[in-house]
């Protein structure tokens, strides 16, 4: 299953497809599913929430790649609430419609010190609704992710606040 998902990214899937895939993952709980690439699928918050629920049931899940969809604050909040205890270490939400509201909700989820313990990298670049306010909320979290990309100025400010080196880059 891992090879299938890595080699053939799903494209242009409907909400029903996302829900069906999520249900399958929740029932099967595939140990070999490490990464899920869902680029350019027009996924919205509902589709993201469904997939996050399925991925949360996969015991070795590492990378959730959701670039270039229509995921907003509700989708990021769904990830924050359903995947807190996951083994995911990289979350890519580049080029979506997330705003400061979603980033603040995610930051609050990470702030408990018990959630997203394996998270190393969070990509939020080119979500034009994220401003310095959202970046600062994430930077204030005692144990936040070590990399964050939104743009050179925000990434550099966040890197300084975290005491880490952030490397802005486009995917």
Figure out the total of helices: 7
Number of strands: 5
Strand order of the largest sheet: 1-2-3-4-5
Backbone shape: globular
Q: What sequence of helices (H) and strands (E) makes up the elements?
A: HHEHEHEHEHEH
The Cα radius of gyration reads: 15 Å
Low-confidence stretches: 1-12, 146-153, 159-171
Q: How much helix is in the residues?
A: 40-55%
Major sheet, described briefly?
5 strands, parallel
- Round the mean pLDDT to the nearest integer and report it: 78
* Beta-strand percent range: 5-15%
The N- and C-terminal alpha carbons lie at a distance of 24 Å
The secondary-structure class comes to alpha/beta
Task: Explain what the structure shows.
Strand 2 (63-65), helix 4 and strand 3 form a beta-alpha-beta unit. It is built from 7 helices and 5 strands. It is α/β, with parallel strands linked by helices and 171 residues long. The model is unreliable at 1-12, 146-153 and 159-171 (pLDDT under 50). It has helices at residues 2-7, 15-28, 45-56, 73-82, 100-110, 132-139, 152-162; strands at 35-37, 63-65, 90-92, 121-123, 147-149.
Short description:
The chain has 171 residues and is an alpha/beta fold.
Entry keywords:
alpha/beta, 5 strands
What is the topology?
Layout lengths: L1 H6 L7 H14 L6 E3 L7 H12 L6 E3 L7 H10 L7 E3 L7 H11 L10 E3 L8 H8 L7 E3 L2 H11 L9
Parallel strand pairs: 1-2, 2-3, 3-4, 4-5
């Amino acid at each position: 299953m891992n090879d299938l998902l890595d080699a053939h990214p799903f494209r242009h899937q409907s909400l029903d497809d996302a829900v069906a895939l999520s249900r399958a993952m929740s029932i099967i709980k595939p140990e070999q599913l490490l990464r899920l690439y869902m680029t350019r699928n027009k996924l919205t918050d509902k589709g993201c929430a469904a997939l996050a629920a399925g991925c949360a049931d996969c015991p070795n899940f590492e990378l959730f790649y959701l670039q270039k969809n229509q995921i907003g604050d509700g989708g990021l909040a769904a990830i924050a609430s359903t995947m807190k205890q996951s083994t995911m270490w990289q979350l890519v939400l580049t080029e979506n419609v997330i705003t400061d509201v979603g980033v603040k909700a995610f930051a609050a989820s990470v702030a408990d010190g018990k959630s997203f313990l394996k998270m190393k990298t969070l990509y939020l670049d080119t979500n034009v609704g994220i401003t310095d306010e959202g970046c600062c909320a994430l930077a204030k979290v005692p144990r936040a992710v070590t990399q964050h990309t939104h743009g050179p100025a925000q990434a550099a400010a966040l890197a300084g606040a975290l005491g880490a080196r952030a490397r802005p880059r486009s995917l």
